[in-house]
Design a protein that fits this description.
The protein is α/β, with parallel strands linked by helices and about 240 residues long. The chain is built from nine helices and five strands. Helix 8 (about 165-175) links the parallel strand 2 (about 155-165) and strand 3 (about 185-190).
């Protein structure tokens, strides 16, 4: 919860800096409608948040904590679904989690002045340096889903697009953030050139071939939730800051 305590402080500063009409249409563009198109996957293959929507996205993520409430609602639905499952209790029921901006948050990075909530192209070198530090904060509501699943006997499987050489920093970051007892942590091999959908589909296929049942799947990108063997039910965590194609 310390992460969102910091966000409360930071959001006050952001709210003071942002105009009071954030969220209303700007010329030629309605930013709320743009975000809805993003979250429903009606808008695809976009590269940057429109500059006109920087204030809107910043306000959504931090200003009034709508993002936090939306994450909590997604988590609530996931937990209710999980509690209603009839499990076989044979250790083969698994739930797939994405990592970046699902179990861990890159929001402090995207709030920086050199990124501006995704309106400025990502500097891959700086972003990779941040990943290597292993200091990404937790998204509390999604961690609540994770812990509930463990209590129910459902095994978490973490599949991330981060390269294999980040394994130790990812493990350290996850443990520091309060995650433990996952069944598998899957990272992308250095020679893996598949698209995001192909990569995650292939890793889920490996789980199914090994006899596991994917009872749930949660991620912030549609590439986490489409393709093959997506699971019995999927849950989309909001993220209007970037698109993974």
């Amino acid at each position: 919860m310390w992460f969102f305590t910091i966000l409360l402080f930071f959001s006050t500063i952001v709210a003071m800096a942002l105009p009071s009409n954030v969220g209303y249409p700007v010329p030629q563009l309605d930013c709320l409608s743009w975000r809805l198109a993003v979250e429903t996957n009606n808008l695809q293959n976009w590269k940057l948040v429109p500059k006109e929507c920087e204030n809107y996205v910043g306000q959504y993520m931090l200003g009034k904590l709508q993002y936090r409430r939306d994450c909590e609602y997604v988590a609530k639905q996931a937990i209710e679904y999980a509690k209603g499952l009839k499990l076989n209790r044979d250790g083969k029921d698994v739930w797939v989690f994405d990592v970046d901006d699902t179990t861990l948050s890159n929001l402090p990075y995207y709030a920086r002045s050199d990124v501006r909530f995704g309106t400025i192209a990502l500097n891959n070198t700086k972003f990779i340096e941040r990943l290597a530090e292993g200091k990404l904060p937790v998204i509390p509501s999604i961690q609540g889903v994770y812990k509930t699943l463990l209590s129910l006997g459902i095994k978490p499987v973490l599949i991330t697009g981060a390269p294999e050489n980040f394994r130790q920093s990812r493990i350290a970051n996850l443990k520091k953030a309060g995650y433990s007892n996952w069944l598998k942590l899957v990272l992308r091999g250095g020679n893996d050139s598949k698209s995001a959908v192909e990569y995650k589909s292939s890793k889920r296929m490996e789980l199914v071939k090994a006899g596991y049942r994917i009872v749930g799947n949660i991620g912030d990108q549609w590439t986490d939730l489409i393709g093959e063997n997506v699971g019995a039910r999927t849950f989309k965590v909001p993220n209007p800051m970037y698109y993974v194609g």
